[in-house]
Fold this protein.
Amino acid sequence: MSDLPITEQENERSRGLDTLSIADTLALINDEDHGVPAAVRRELPSITRAVEGVVARLRQGGRIIYVGTGTSGRLGVLDASECPPTYGVPAELVQGLIAGGYEACWRAVEASEDDGEAGARDLAARGVTAADVVVGIAASGRTPYTIGAVAHARSIGAFTVAVTCVPGSAITQAVDVPIVPVVGPEVVAGSTRMKAGTAQKLVLNMISTTAMIQLGYVRGNRMTNMRARNSKLQARAVRILQSETGLDEAAATTALEAGGGDVATAVVMVKSGCTRERAAEALASAGGVIDRAIASLGQEG
């Protein structure tokens, strides 16, 4: 058993799992989950190095491409898919690549993870270059598909990161920055969608969120570049606009409508006194960063 990666080993604390009551099972799972944030915290220096590299590449026009299989791949697709609505960035900026294609997001395609050459091929098909960031996500750290992808990315000069829960695993040797929150054996042996998946999700949240903050897509702690595309987001957008501009609710609603439902455009319009068309042009030239757009309009005036 000792030659198994820690994510595959049996958890001594859950050996009698099938004999426990529902309440005791839930308590045990919760107890095990308590250690996950601490494991992630121990990796903050590595996460910092990763985010520094991500920000540097994105500022030069690069992209983030998450790569993984199974649960790890789904987590990458999830984080990538949430960046455009949250930060108003193009869908191409943060991408998720999962073995077996997007069908694997809802149907298991396990065999696809064993092909290392497929990982490199699929990544090459995305047009990865030295300007990009490739984040390999693999709980066990030994998935051929993911290792093949990050090895290819590193060979052409891309910045590479691994998120794994097994120290010293193969993927840690294949990247520039390994992030390794060690959460130990799972409650259900080998079910890495549990603690390992939670740790990976926390790390991906930190990478993408901090990168977007550094790039200027958050003002204060507000999602000033979000898209108001339903009633809940519409109400949130009005609140953000009120906080940003000091307008009352009615005026903020009117300003948001004038900005075409786009918070960033409305903020620039209100603060600069310009038209919607000019605000949109300034934002496009500023890469969507509100402060830069406002500054450029002020310089014109």
